[in-house]
Amino acid sequence: MEKQNNFIGGRLTRLPPGFRFQPTDEEIVFEYLKCKILCLPLPASIIPELPLSLFDPWDLPGDLEEERYFFTKKEAKYRRGSRTNRTTSSGYWKATGTEKHLSPPQNNLGNITMKGLKKTFVFYRGKSPNGRRTDWFMHEYSLLLNNVLPRSNHMTSSIHHQVSFSN
């Protein structure tokens, strides 16, 4: 597979050779997403922000062979509804499995309680409910403060393509 553009908005989105970005689920939520939502400095400016609904998974910036991370804002599916839009021009992301609850290592925000959520999605080509399942997976991370989603509605997504080998 060929490498994709590694710049978004003039910013480098790849680490130098020899460096790896392999955060745990808890680090993504409580180190990166928390800082993004609370407008605090990020530990590293490696996760770009972009509207995921404008990109099919194979068109996202970055190396197709690597797991890629993005900040994105939740976009309402319906004007007056609370459901999130996860459709693209070629298909849609469908939830699979159960959501995983994440706990912070320690809460240094005083009386604010934090909890993280991780949901897994699979990309389907075509329109629901007749789409064809693909090998593209997305892990969506959300942060709840005092058991409520913050007004900023930021979330982090980790997208990767599952490579299958058959004889």
Automatic annotation (TrEMBL):
Q: Please report the stretch or stretches of sequence annotated as the NAC domain.
A: 15-162
UniProt cross-references to InterPro entries, sorted A to Z = NAC-dom, NAC_dom_sf
Q: Would the keyword Cytoplasm turn up in this protein's UniProt record? A: no
Task: Show the PROSITE patterns listed in the entry.
Answer: NAC
Tell me the segments the record calls region Disordered. 81-109
Q: Which Gene3D superfamilies match?
A: NAC domain
Q: Name one GO biological process term.
A: regulation of DNA-templated transcription
Gene Ontology MF terms in the entry: DNA binding
The UniProt keyword set, sorted, is: DNA-binding, Nucleus, Transcription, Transcription regulation
- List the protein's name: NAC domain-containing protein
Q: Which organism is it from?
A: Carnegiea gigantea
